[in-house]
Amino acid sequence: MSYTPPAMPVAPPPPPGGPARPGAWLKSPVGLARATMVLLGVGMAVDVFSLWAGVGVLDVVSDLIDHGWSADAEDRADRADTLYGTSGVLQALVLLVTATVFICWFHRVRVNAEVFAPDAHTKGRGWAVGGWFVPVVNLWFPRRIAVDTWNASSPGFFVSPPGDFAPEQPRRTLLNAWWTLWLCTGILGQIASRQYANAEEPEAIERAVVSLLASDVLNIAAAVVAILFVRRLTAMQDAKARYGPGGVPA
Q1: Which of 52, 143, 152, 228 could form a disulfide with 116 if both were Cys (CB 3.0 to 4.6 A apart)?
Q2: Per-residue pLDDT for 190 more than 70?
Q3: What are phi and psi of 117, to 5 degrees?
Q4: CA–CA separation, 146 vs 140, rounded Å?
Q5: Structural domain boundaries of the chain?
Q6: Residue/partner pairs of 64-73 with CB below 8 Å, 24 or more apart
Q7: Cα dihedral angle (37, 38, 42, 48), rounded to 10 degrees?
Q8: What DSSP string runs through the chain?
Q9: Tens digits of residue pLDDT in 19-31
Q10: How far apart, in whole angstroms, are the C-alpha atoms of residue 120 and residue 109?
Q11: Positions of the region Disordered (predicted)?
């Protein structure tokens, strides 16, 4: 799927309304996409480790609820808590690195999409980065940018001249699934983390860990869909850059 970008952008003719804005040029997103997918895979592995560590905490807490405190149970609880804490640190580190690389890829494909269809974007390219960090705005700006980028990168997409019927929009099932899972993981993760931080009694800890385990499972599902999303959007841009609007060899 990788390609060597040509000296001049290979892209469909600009739609009515003018060429791409200054600074927009095609640059291969393949390398960043591969790095993003690898890091998402690493994140899934860390989530599996967190699930294993969380089950260990549940086992200890269950014993405490059934048999009460003892010196042996306290030692096991300390070891389980340390292991679970380590998994949480690893998750945070992998998330930070993955998010950084993903946002770089996201900005790259947004700029490419501006070459494909300069007038198909409702948000400036700077929001492809800033939109993730501004509170409230980050609940919908990244998806809007992703939709515009997906549309512009789809085979045969064009912007209709004023007065014409709008073109048929490409299917966005994968994009919508990615964004929905991303929002759900963020919400559930915040709730579960606060629940665990405030838990003191064994019963409360048990409930909090169950919530965290559910969050880890959702994280894994979200990572799988994110990999598919990154792979698909990168492939569409690669095909369009190679072969033009049709996305297939001539």
Answers
A1: 152
A2: yes
A3: -150, 85
A4: 10
A5: 30-153+169-243
A6: 64/202, 65/202, 65/203, 65/206
A7: 50
A8: ------SS---PPPPTT-SPPTT------HHHHHHHHHHHHHHHHHHHHHHHHHHHHHHHHHHHHHH---HHHHHHHHHHHHHHHHHHHHHHHHHHHHHHHHHHHHHHHHHHHHHH-TTS-SS-TTHHHHTTTSTTGGGTHHHHHHHHHHHHHSTT--PPPTTSPPPPPPP-HHHHHHHHHHHHHHHHHHHHHHHHHH--SHHHHHHHHHHHHHHHHHHHHHHHHHHHHHHHHHHHHHHHHHH-TT-S--
A9: 445 667 889 999 9
A10: 14
A11: 1-22
Tokens of residue 107, six digits: 């900005």
Q: Count CB atoms within 10 A of the CB of residue 162.
A: 6
Look at residue 63 in the predicted model and tell me its pLDDT. Answer: 84
> pTM of the predicted model, to two decimals?
0.84
